[in-house]
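Researcher: Final request for today, and then I'll write up notes for the group meeting. The sequence and the SMILES for acetyl coenzyme *A follow.
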Amino acid sequence: MTATKGLEGIVATTSSISSIIDGVLTYRGINIDELAEHATFEETAYLLWYGKLPTSSELKGLIDQLSANAAVPAEVIQQMKLYPSDTNSMAALRTAVSSLALYDKAANDMAPEANVLKAIKLQAQIPTIIAAFARIREGKEPIAPQAGATIAHNFLYMLTGQAPEEVAVKALDQALVLHADHELNASTFAARVTVATLSDIYSGVTSAIGALKGPLHGGANEAVMVMLDEIGSFAKVEPYINQKLANKEKIMGFGHRVYKNGDPRAKHLQHMSRELGKLTGNMELYEMSVRIEELVTGQKGLKPNVDFYSASVYTTLGIARDLFTPIFAISRTSGWTAHILEQFENNRLIRPRAEYTGPVDNRFVPIEKR
Ligand SMILES: CC(=O)SCCNC(=O)CCNC(=O)[C@H](O)C(C)(C)COP(=O)(O)OP(=O)(O)OC[C@H]1O[C@@H](n2cnc3c(N)ncnc32)[C@H](O)[C@@H]1OP(=O)(O)O
Ligand SMILES: O=C([O-])CC(=O)C(=O)O
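Model: Predicted protein-acetyl coenzyme *A complex:
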């Protein structure tokens, strides 16, 4: 038995949800470029869950269902008020999502219809949890979701209590489409491993949130913004990046396990970053990002991934940097839950082997002789 470090190149499951073939990403066979341009997040979630694009009435039905399920149990909000004031946003989300299960009587109901309903509930409630967390830590009361609003609109509304600008809603919605699913990424794999034991969907999504949090995965979008803040101005980009590369440090938001010639989602986020910069009259983050890309691609051949330009997009939308990874989770909940439902449809325990590299022929030594 020989281990493949990081399971690189190992095909661990079949899936009909999303594919990456020759650097092209599709959801249910539809190219991400088409979806980014034309689909809304709710249409995308429907596509991931049901395997087809919704009709107008199916889409309206889903938006209504999401909106009807967006409120979070009062107990979960009460618990969030007791979290330490410096709680990490992804730790807060992971804890709150886990506790949602305590207040759902159907949490352990494994009937397929019950699981679809829980997928929709999780999709509806996660934005509410994140917005509530953002307000509670500022000493403000959470804002109840608005009936009939889309997830992008509702999330921005629940953060501030103000009706969001259309351009902000559109940008966030497009970012949600771009992050919704991505084949067997680490967090989706974590979700599938968890539910393949026939554990419940809340456990699966809680595992996934834990996996997304790390800076080698979803946590990279926040890490990109930390870097941009640290650099501080366009003039300081070149010395900062050159130093990092000379020290063999990783530049967050670059590189990918699967894409070696560039992440097809990055160009959409770059475009959004440029357009939002123009609209707000502040191009500095965009220009700094482009210069970082020139340097990192020029010197290392590494291309930006989905996390790189999302940092400048979300900052230009006025969102705090530690909410970037939770926003990724809002979107990826659609993909995680689609994969969980697919796993349940054709389940087998996921249990690979390990190549043993420890000592052999060791003997037990009585405690007084150690
Ligand atoms: C939504 C997402 O999850 S997208 C990914 C988000 N993560 C990041 O942006 C973090 C930065 N990027 C990385 O750490 C990596 O590119 C990963 C984890 C995404 C994928 O990497 P892997 O396939 O495991 O490649 P690995 O980390 O082994 O790197 C291979 C080589 O490229 C280098 N490299 C990879 N990414 C970077 C980077 N961002 N900056 C500098 N060097 C890098 C490594 O140092 C390594 O060099 P070496 O062979 O000289 O030691
Ligand atoms: O697929 C991966 O390894 C990481 C990624 O880009 C994602 O989850 O969107």
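Model: The chain has two domains: 17-166+184-214+331-345, 220-316. Residues 220-316 form a domain with the Cytochrome p450-Terp; domain 2 fold (CATH 1.10.230.10).
Researcher: Thanks, that's everything.
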